[in-house]
Each structure stands twice: as C-alpha cells, then as structure tokens.
Amino acid sequence: MLDNDGPAIDWDSMIFSYQKTDRMYISHCKQGGEWSPGVMQDFQNLSISPAAGVLNYGQGLFEGLKAQRTEDGGIVMFRPERNAKRMQSGARRLGIPVVPEEMFLNAVRQTVIENTRWIPPMGKGALYIRPLLMGSGAILGVAPAPEYTFLVYVSPVGPYFKGGLKPISLKVSDKFHRAAPGGSGGVKAIGNYAPGMVPSKDAKAQGFAEIIYLDAVHHRYVEEVGAANFFCVNDGVISTPELTGTILPGVTRASVIEIAKDMGYDVREEKVDVDYVLNADECFCAGTAAVISSIGSIQHGDKVANFGDGEVGPITRILYDELTSIQQRRIPDERGWTVSVE
Ligand code: PLP
Ligand code: COI
Questions:
Q1: What distance in Å separates the CA atoms of residue 69 and residue 73, rounded to the nearest whole number?
Q2: What atom of ligand 2 comes closest to residue 226's alpha carbon?
Q3: How does pLDDT run across 171-210, given as a tens digit for each residue?
Q4: Is-above-0.85 flag for pTM?
C-alpha cells in the first residue's frame, strides 16, 4: 500500500542526491567486544571525537543497496545478503569487527520499514540504503580504533547518470588509477572514493559522465567505471574484467553475469584490453546506483570510439530489461534474489 502522508517530492524529477529522511539504525561495538543491540532513532547528526579512527585514518566502509516498490505496492530489496557479506570481507581487510549477516539484514529491513513513506512509486526510482561501518573511537597512532559504529540511513534516489537511459560518454583516465594490487580496491573502503573525485570532476567539466580506470600495473586493461563495473559486447560475446582484488565485486555485476549466462550468452570474466573495448559493438556499466547504463562513447587519448549511434545496444537493452524486471518483481524471480520487506 502507498502511504497517504508521503513527502512532497516530484518523483519524476529525482536525481541521485541526498535527501534527509525520518529514521536511522545505529549500533556500537568495542574492539574485541560484541555489537550492542541496534536501535532505531530519529535521523540525526553523530557526535564523534575529532580523534576518531575514521576521521583521521579513513577506517571505514560503506554499502549501497536499494528498496523498491513492486506492482502490488509491496517493497523488495535486491540480494541484501551479498552486501552483508561484502561488508564483512571489507571489515576483515580494514581490521573492523565484523557485523553478523543477520544483524545487517535486520538493520536494513528495519530502516526501510521506518522510512516507507520515502520509497518512490514503482518505476520512479528507489530508496537507496546506505549502511556505514567505521572506527568511531579515538586513536592517535595508526592502528585500529578502540570502538566502532554501524549505522544505516536511507535516501530516495532517481537515476545515477543525468539523462536516465541515454547512453553516456566516458573518458579513460590517462593520469590516475583507482586501485593497485594488494590495496583496498576489492572492498568498499570509504578511502577508495576521495581520490576519484577530482578526476571525475575534471571529466565532467569536459562533458563526460565519468572516468574509466585502467589497471595500475600495465595501464592497459579496463578495471571499472568510477562507481560501477564495466562490460563490453563483441560479436555477441560479453566480456567483463575479472576480479583480481583491485576491482569491486559488484552485486549487479554478478547478477548480470548469471542472467546473461542463463540466457545462453557466452560471458567471459577476463582481462579486458582497452583496445578491444574501443572496437566493441556495445559497452555498458553496472552497479546498484547505475543499474545498467549504456555507454555511447569512450575517449582514450586521441581516439574516440562510438557505440550504437546514440541508441542503447540490443544486448544491453535485453539485460537491462531482464535485470530491472527481476528487481521490481515484474517477472517471476526464479533465483530468489528479491527479499520482501514487511
Ligand atoms: N564498483 C565500484 C567502485 C562501486 O562503488 C560500485 C557500487 O557499489 C560498483 C562497482 C557496483 O557494485 P554493486 O553492483 O554491488 O552496487
Ligand atoms: C552504489 O552503486 O551503491 C555505489 O556505491 C555508488 C555510490 C558510490 C554513489
């Protein structure tokens, strides 16, 4: 059922931006201790020591998933247990106490339930769920913080890229890399994102929607797009960069691979040479925020490759329709990927 007291939002003109909502979840844990029973509270600012580990040394992780309305007015989340597991692997990498999967799932469920009036009508966007896990205790030496905070807040969102489904233009970064072998690129560490802000802002100032990063060793293989995984299609073969520890293992990426394989496509997780990409028939990127976004052109140095004459490529379109139909339960969810929130 849609709430009658919904907020006065023009759902049709929403973009991917922050909107304060009503309620948030919060829990705390001392290093070596147990997580306190999480509580729901009114959305509010945090009170935190200036010496907090997260503020000084970036000891923090975030997640991103969506809750959406279905045709019958229900609410569903997409594969939230994957986000729970990815946050656990990030916690292990950054020396943060692991949040049990059940606790994570309850936290996101409860936060959605207590903010239902902010969920857009079906097809008009989603409620973006943002779990955060951080070293909130004070520490001066470079070491894991003595205390941690896990919280969840939400915000209604529209399309990540301006123009919605319109194919985007991307630029290959010739100066910057996102992650190096042995670093933290394979987990959703908050510190992975600030170094991408200036490259991304510069690309946007030149009319591009985002940056494509190449690998830091050979500067030759595509890694990912700012905040989404990369795919290209060549003669019907779908290729996506293999997971080597420098690329975020996207939930959308894994879902697209499985859907495409089940449809009979040849899907390859492999090294994807940027020159191969420039000769592809179709390219797209995939992520929770980006969903599946068609790529219309890629600039690399003085080369520009155009794909699909301004139209979304046929295989990209098929995969987009299938993925979003499953996510909104417009077709049967045979894999059990959607989770009802009730
Ligand atoms: N790559 C990066 C760097 C991201 O931030 C995201 C977003 O979460 C993704 C890929 C896509 O991951 P997912 O599909 O789980 O949202
Ligand atoms: C997501 O897709 O959830 C992301 O992480 C994108 C975000 C960095 C805006």
A1: 6
A2: 8
A3: 999 999 999 999 999 999 999 999 999 999 999 999 999 9
A4: yes
